[in-house]
Write the structure tokens for this entry.
Amino acid sequence: MSLYEVVHRRRDTRAEFTGEEIAPDVLRRVLEAAHAAPSVGLSQPWDFVLVRDESTRRAFRDHVQAERSVFAAQLDADRAEAFSRIKVEGVMESSLGVVVTYDPDRGSPAVLGRHAIADAGLYSVCLAIQNLWLAATEEGLGVGWVSFYREDVLRRLLDIPARLRPVAWLCVGPVRSLPDTPDLERHGWRNRMPLDSVVHYDVFGRRN
């Protein structure tokens, strides 16, 4: 696929995982792509925890399901009905979890480019995640970003040091296929906005 095809083919994957193993060379290429991401001050403030242990994954899945219930309880009837159709994780169905963390001390004390924007390091981690996602798509893998969790719970589960921030649990693995339409659109949660609705010229709010 071309880069543009990969960008538009990428999906947040939930129900399509086969559970098959990822070939070691494929996983290495995907992680190398993530590690090649740009980072503020070349700090490379990310780490990747590869989680295959079934009991650990089950414990995380149970926590995610509890947080799903917390969110569902906040919704009105129409939204709750739409949300009931949406699968929010593929923790057990995927081949492994890749937990991506942010280390704010990496490259300290003088991280070039971070003095005015403290979150620039966190943005760098998100770029690594995007690289991983696009590379995985090119390799025929699915990726699902799980965000229904409390950071302290994940820290304890994986023995992540207190100074590190767990940014994402990514479900990764071979898939039967990737849907043509994102799940949230298919299930009526939200529609994608057209490009022209978010483009401004010279100042915010000027549309042409």
About this structure: DSSP finds seven helices and four strands in the chain. Residues 41 and 112 are 4 Å apart (CA to CA). The beta strands are 46-51, 96-102, 141-146, 165-174.
